[in-house]
Design brief:
This protein is mostly helical and 96 residues long. It is 74% helix and 0% strand. The protein contains 5 helices and no strands. Helix 1 packs across helix 2 and helix 2 crosses helix 4. The termini are far apart. 12% of the residues are buried.
């Protein structure tokens, strides 16, 4: 499967979940678990078989929310993500 097909499919899945599960807009772990459920996962073993990357889910959620402005997270979550982004940037700059 090409990257384009993979991410087009993930995008449709994530849009559906963000629309129907507003609580997933604030939590990538919940978003990932909902995506796995949509794809039929019922156990931890099923998660492994799906081979669905939480990073891909996270990145697509970022594009949908931040670049496209759809299904925005709560204001509290936006602030927390912003603070964390700054803290991570500061931490990483000290490593190099």
């Amino acid at each position: 499967m090409s990257v384009k097909v993979e991410f087009d499919n993930i995008r449709v899945l994530i849009l559906n979940i963000l629309e129907n599960h507003p609580e997933a807009r604030d939590n990538d772990t919940l978003l990932y678990l909902e995506a796995c459920k949509y794809l039929g996962a019922k156990s931890i073993e099923d998660l492994v078989k799906l081979n669905l990357s939480i990073i891909s889910i996270h990145k697509m959620r970022q594009v949908i929310q931040n670049k496209e402005g759809l299904f925005k997270p709560s204001e509290e979550t936006e602030k927390a993500r912003s603070r964390r982004r700054v803290a991570i940037k500061e931490y990483m700059s000290r490593l190099g």
